[in-house]
């Protein structure tokens, strides 16, 4: 495998000192996932990464990026010594960005960053080689790590950029230097650190500060804060809007949610267009619009892009739907919608719409009617408005189509009390209290959604439900 970084190139990028010649084929920050040939970056988190340098080298790391020679490591071991490891990684990322020929797309937003990034990965791959962030690597170490891992000869790069506090997006955007910068949406999230939706919008719009000359800003057309996003994109050479609002450059005219897909009708440049996403969800349709806008901004074939977009489906924890078989002989099963990775008001609303559109199977279980069931965990980091935002779920359009709603966490107690008695399931303080009797939650033919912020750990309910199955498969049309 061709070297990604040599000791000489890495030392030049960081201003560090190499103790010996080495060549690395990858970059890692975790010894658990480190591959032979990786450069191990000894970051400080819960523990100091210097404690794991000896282990990394023993596992086959080509070298380690450190601020000093760790205890138990020979002075002539392959190291790159820098004053500060995080800054060293940032320097490596900036150098990785500077040397690549790739057209770069930067993605941010309150909801849908990772899904949109993965849509872009699939869509762009049909017309060139793609490098994109792993998982949700979108913060002060995730962005430079993604850039440092980028091959020089890749055609496209997709960089996800996130934030928890004011002032975080601009420096990451300037490091990524996107040719296309895309905001998925702006919604109540991280309100503990921001005093208003307007403040969140200003922070999201900071991604446009990193645009390359001649770059394109892509933003939603139908938000209350769209004027703020437009103002933030004023310096962009090109501005493109998407959404259901009249006048949007990529105008969403209709969506049809099926059990396994979303069919989307679009008007663009005066012409009708049709595409599909292999997962139900209006939010996926809107994200798909943004992806097609980005593909056009990159000069790609729009028909091919729409076709490739149709191959995308969400990963586990982000809306993937699974068919869980309870009994192979009796052919009894239920469907699980796993959306347990994160939650805020906008993403909860989108997930509820998916559940409402789902079709349970009648006449196969102890209950004559198949049910739509929701397990909703607390939405975290919503600040002083959290009680009102949790209670507002009770007013979601079509909520009466959901048969049972179980609530997890202290913040969801208000919603539980507000639900009609016939719809009110269990309220528990911790996810483990629900996961421990998961079999009682479902009946053959049911469709059950599990949604909540990562910190409330409703993923434990997902795991428990999944273990009920003799066999689990993704619903047809997903992969």
TrEMBL record:
NCBIfam families (alphabetical): murF
Main enzyme class: ligase
Pathway: Cell wall biogenesis; peptidoglycan biosynthesis
Enzymatic reactions: D-alanyl-D-alanine + UDP-N-acetyl-alpha-D-muramoyl-L-alanyl-gamma-D-glutamyl-meso-2,6-diaminopimelate + ATP = UDP-N-acetyl-alpha-D-muramoyl-L-alanyl-gamma-D-glutamyl-meso-2,6-diaminopimeloyl-D-alanyl-D-alanine + ADP + phosphate + H(+)
Domain Mur ligase N-terminal catalytic positions: 25-69
Family per record: Belongs to the MurCDEF family. MurF subfamily.
Organism, as annotated: Fuscibacter oryzae
Encoding gene per record: murF
Annotated keywords: ATP-binding, Cell cycle, Cell division, Cell shape, Cell wall biogenesis/degradation, Cytoplasm, Ligase, Nucleotide-binding, Peptidoglycan synthesis
Name recorded for this polypeptide: UDP-N-acetylmuramoyl-tripeptide--D-alanyl-D-alanine ligase
Cellular component GO terms, alphabetical: cytoplasm
Chief location bin: cytoplasm
Keyword Cell wall biogenesis/degradation among record annotations: yes
Binding site residues for ATP: 109-115
Role: Involved in cell wall formation. Catalyzes the final step in the synthesis of UDP-N-acetylmuramoyl-pentapeptide, the precursor of murein.
């Amino acid at each position: 495998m061709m070297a990604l970084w040599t000791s000489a190139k890495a030392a030049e990028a960081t201003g560090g000192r190499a103790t010996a010649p080495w060549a690395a084929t990858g970059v890692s920050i975790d010894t658990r996932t480190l591959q032979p040939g990786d450069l191990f970056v000894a970051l400080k988190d819960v523990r100091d990464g210097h404690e794991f340098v000896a282990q990394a080298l023993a596992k086959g790391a080509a070298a380690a990026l450190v601020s000093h020679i760790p205890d138990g490591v020979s002075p002539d071991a392959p190291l790159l010594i820098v004053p500060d490891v995080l800054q060293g990684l940032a320097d490596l990322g900036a150098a990785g960005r500077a040397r690549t020929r790739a057209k770069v797309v930067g993605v941010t937003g309150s909801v849908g960053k990772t899904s949109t990034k993965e849509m872009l990965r699939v869509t762009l791959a049909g017309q060139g080689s793609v490098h994109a962030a792993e998982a949700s690597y979108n913060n002060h170490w995730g962005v430079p790590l993604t850039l440092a891992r980028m091959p020089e000869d890749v055609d496209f790069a997709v960089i996800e950029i996130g934030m928890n506090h004011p002032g975080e997006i601009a420096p990451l955007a300037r490091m990524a230097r996107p040719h296309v910068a895309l905001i998925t949406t702006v919604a109540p999230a991280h309100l503990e650190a921001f005093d208003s939706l307007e403040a969140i919008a200003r922070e999201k719009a900071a991604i446009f500060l990193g645009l390359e000359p001649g770059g394109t800003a892509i933003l939603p057309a139908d938000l209350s804060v769209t004027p703020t996003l437009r103002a933030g994109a004023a310096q962009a050479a090109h501005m493109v809007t998407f959404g259901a609002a009249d006048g949007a450059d990529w105008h969403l005219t209709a969506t049809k949610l099926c059990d396994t897909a979303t069919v989307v009708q679009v008007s663009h440049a005066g012409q009708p267009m049709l595409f599909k996403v292999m997962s139900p969800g209006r939010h996926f349709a809107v994200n798909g619009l943004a992806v097609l806008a980005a593909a056009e901004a990159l000069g790609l074939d729009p028909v091919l892009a729409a076709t490739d977009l149709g191959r995308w489906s969400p990963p586990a924890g982000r809306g993937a739907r699974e068919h869980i078989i309870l009994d192979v002989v009796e052919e009894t099963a239920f469907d699980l919608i796993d959306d347990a990775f994160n939650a805020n008001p906008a993403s909860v609303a989108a997930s509820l719409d998916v559940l409402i559109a789902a079709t349970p199977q009648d006449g196969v279980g102890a209950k004559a009617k198949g049910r739509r069931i929701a397990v909703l965990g607390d939405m975290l980091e919503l600040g002083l408005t959290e009680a009102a935002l949790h209670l507002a779920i009770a007013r979601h359009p079509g909520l009466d189509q959901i048969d049972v709603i179980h609530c997890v966490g202290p913040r969801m107690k208000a919603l539980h009390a507000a639900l009609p008695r016939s719809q009110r399931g269990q309220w528990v303080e911790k996810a483990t209290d629900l996961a421990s009797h998961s079999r009682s939650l479902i009946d053959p033919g049911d469709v059950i959604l599990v949604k909540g912020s990562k910190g409330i750990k409703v993923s434990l309910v997902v795991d428990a439900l999944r273990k009920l199955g003799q066999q689990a498969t993704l619903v047809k049309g997903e992969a």
